[in-house]
Amino acid sequence: TSKPMVLFLGPWSVGKSSMINYLLGLDNTPYQLYTGAEPTTSEFTVIMHGPKLKTIEGIVMAADSARSFSPLEKFGQNFLEKLIGIEVPHKLLERVTFVDTPGIIENRKQQERGYPFNDVCQWFIDRADLIFVVFDPTKLDVGLELEMLFRQLKGRESQIRIILNKADSLATQELMRVYGALFWSLAPLINVTEPPRVYVSSFWPHEYHPDTHKDLFLKEEISLLEDLNQVIENRMENKIAFIRQHAIRVRIHALLVDRYLQTYKDKMTFFSDGELVFRDIVEDPDRFFIFKSILAKTNVSKFDLPNREAYKDFFGINPITSFKLLSQQCSYMGGCFLEKIEKAITRELPDLLGSIGLGKKP
């Protein structure tokens, strides 16, 4: 039942907060987000609908289960002090929630922020329906923190929109060069056949500079609003598609854990040291064809397989002996877990999507 979430990411001072002020018409009102040339936003700011203007502390937001931000408590009190909610009585916010993030400052280490910045970004990325990555002509260089961010966006390419903001500060020829340079910087980071949509304009209430492509900028602005509207309109379809995507990941994870467990059981003898046997498997899963066997047996794409290294950490926290084989997760009345998830992926969720397409209420 939650509203679609639009996330604003990007380097500091590229106009993320100004863009939100502009989209909501908050400039010169008591509601406007603070903006400036220096890094101004140090908080994660959630802008949502409310009957009157109200600021909500992060600690209160996390404690209120009705707001769906309670999982953020796991990032600690330091983070909750950097989380703020603003309720604004605005029509657009009845249909969507905006999240403004602290600008990326490349020479700052995560530790200096006092909370796990990348993990928090990941939490919001996983829940966002639309992700605006904002750049301006002066900040096109891609450093480590931005590179890390694009790694976190992997698999979410369809939700990413690149914004080249403050475009009316450049002459035509310069703008073309900057546009090319932006693609050049981002090409190694976004490995998809179809690049994300790039919007080129100046998203703030001031008049465009004279002698610039006013018509183009206005058309780009309208396209962006249509895009935003489309996401709001299709939120139910997007949600079902996302659940299906998540189900596929859960299924792959279950199959992999099952395969690790089966290999462990096969290698164990009466005299074996369980810990050494399993360390051997985790250190070199390819020797035991763990990942390859999943591809051979099931309808799984090699591009969907998770990172092997992640399983070292995973089994470091969850000992292999705490798992049961998938074949043992079946009951006469309840059926098998794996069959249920297969059915959801192949039949139930696609049928649900189809029923929305036919105009039925799911």
UniProtKB/TrEMBL annotation:
Recorded GO MF terms: GTP binding
Protein's recorded name: Sarcalumenin
InterPro entries: Dynamin_N, G_DYNAMIN_dom, P-loop_NTPase, TRAFAC_Dynamin-like_GTPase
Alphabetized CDD domains for the sequence: EHD (cd09913)
Domain Dynamin-type G: 1-241
Keywords per UniProt: Glycoprotein, Membrane, Sarcoplasmic reticulum, Signal
Membrane-topology annotation of the record: Peripheral membrane protein
Source species, domain of life: Eukaryota
PROSITE patterns xref list: G_DYNAMIN_2 (PS51718)
Subcellular location: Sarcoplasmic reticulum lumen; Sarcoplasmic reticulum membrane
Gene Ontology cellular-component terms listed: sarcoplasmic reticulum lumen; sarcoplasmic reticulum membrane
